[in-house]
Each structure stands twice: as structure tokens, then as C-alpha cells.
Design goal:
Number of domains: 1
CATH architecture: 3-Layer(aba) Sandwich
CATH topology: Rossmann fold
Strand order of the largest sheet: 3-2-1-4-5-6-7-8
Number of strands: 8
Structural class: alpha/beta
């Protein structure tokens, strides 16, 4: 674990799961530049996670690396407890763990692969969102990566799409549960045929956490390069939200 330097406390706090690489890393760096104190969650590669923390600290940000398997309920509880111990509160949770991906047709997929996918996708998302619902301060935000949007049909994606579909419904329904506390809950679904850079997706996440994005909740936003960037999103949702496309 790498602890942050002393600070005036004039920051918000974000837990980013899967923050040692990919979209999680990009989101952690992006939010750190917006003066979020970042909890860099990782499960295997401590060195990579601490390198993310070092990058944030070098840019005069605040961060800590905390190991937790987000598919394990006790680990997730410890993750949130450690975040609160380090920074006093949690304002945002970015669940960027994509989970195990087995591209096997339904008729051929081994049940062990299916169980692993369900554990690392829908179960992990449920555990993280459950703790977020318990601990995120009123007015906060939750953003889930909900799995890929498959534009070109492929039987190999059926099992994974089934495993991740629960995350989309979790996102929509939890948004209703947390409406009175003004906690927004949204999901991002990535187009596997027209993939975006992690930094592009991080811009969407940053927008959803901004004052301008406060009116968006319960949405699963399909992110691809046809979205034409952040500036087009509010227009595409009639001024009440933003997305290239939404479900």
C-alpha cells in the first residue's frame, strides 16, 4: 500500500476498481486531475498499481493503492473500510473491472468458465455497488462498466453478454433506489467493433461525475467513436443527459 502525502482535505474521494491498467487506470488519472483523492484498487499486480499512485503523486495529486478481490464480499468490505480510513469518506465509485471473458458458444462453454464469468462480472459488480450504496455520500456518483456492446452478432459473446446484462439492470434499478440521496448511478457499455481508447472513456466518466452530468442517472451509455466526444452528448439526450446512444 502506498499512502498519500498530507493534504488540506479539500478534495472528493473516488474508489476505482481495476485501476492498475486500462480504463480503470485512465479513470484514476483523469479524476486525480480533477482533485479527487483516488483509491487505486488492484488484485494481482501491486507494482503496477503503485506506479499509478506514483504518477498521481508526481502530479501533486492524492492516492492510495489497496488490494481487494472485488468478487469476494469480505475483500470489498475491507476495500471501502480502508478507503474511509485513509480519506474519511467516499464520494464516487468507478467499477472498471471487466471480469473473466470466455468467448465460447453457449453450446460449448464449460460450466467452470461460466461460473468464473458470473463471479467476476455480475457478482463483483453487485458487491461493489452494494458497498457503494452503503457508503457513498449523498450527492455522489457510481459508474459501472457494464460489458461490451456487440454490434456485429457473434455466438461467442452470448455467455459473456448474459453474465454482464445483470450489471445493466443493477445500474438502472440502483439509480432508483438512490434517487432520494441524489446519488447518480450510470453504466458505460463499450463497442467492441469500434473500440475507444481508455482516455476517451475516462472523459465520459469525468463528465458523469461533473456538475454538468448531475442530471443523468439510471442510464447505460454506449460509448464508441461515433459518439463524437463529450460535447455531443448533452445534445443527443435533449439537454438532460449525454451519450452517443443509450439503452
Amino acid at each position: 500500500m502506498v499512502f498519500p502525502p498530507s493534504s488540506s482535505g479539500n478534495f472528493r474521494v473516488a474508489i476505482v476498481t481495476g485501476a492498475s491498467r486500462g480504463i480503470g487506470r485512465a479513470a484514476a488519472l483523469r479524476l486525480a486531475r480533477l482533485r479527487y483523492a483516488i483509491v487505486v484498487n488492484y488484485v494481482h499486480d501491486q507494482q503496477t498499481a503503485e506506479a499509478v499512485v506514483d504518477t498521481i503523486l508526481d502530479d501533486r495529486g492524492t492516492a492510495v493503492a489497496i488490494r481487494a478481490d472485488v468478487a469476494d464480499d469480505l475483500d470489498v468490505e475491507r476495500l471501502f473500510a480502508a478507503a474511509i480510513d485513509a480519506f474519511g469518506a467516499v464520494d464516487a465509485v468507478i467499477h472498471a473491472v471487466r471480469g473473466h471473458l470466455a468467448l465460447v458458444p453457449v453450446a460449448e462453454i464449460p460450466l467452470d468458465d461460466l461460473d468464473t464469468m458470473l463471479r467476476t462480472t455480475s457478482r463483483a459488480a453487485f458487491l461493489v455497488n452494494r458497498e457503494a450504496a452503503r457508503h457513498v455520500r449523498n450527492g455522489g456518483a457510481i459508474v459501472n462498466l457494464t460489458g461490451p456492446l456487440r454490434v456485429s452478432p457473434s455466438p461467442s459473446y452470448t455467455a459473456y453478454a448474459t453474465a454482464t446484462a445483470a450489471i445493466q439492470e443493477l445500474t438502472r434499478m440502483l439509480a432508483l433506489d438512490l434517487l432520494e440521496r441524489e446519488i447518480t448511478v450510470n453504466g458505460l457499455s463499450l463497442d467492441v467493433d469500434r473500440p475507444c481508447s481508455p482516455e476517451w472513456v475516462a472523459d465520459f466518466i469525468a463528465y458523469l461525475l461533473s456538475a454538468a452530468g448531475r442530471g443523468i442517472t439510471g442510464q447505460v451509455i454506449h460509448v464508441d467513436y461515433s459518439s463524437q466526444g463529450i460535447d455531443s452528448i448533452a445534445t443527443s439526450q435533449g439537454g438532460n443527459g449525454r451519450s452517443g446512444r443509450r439503452t
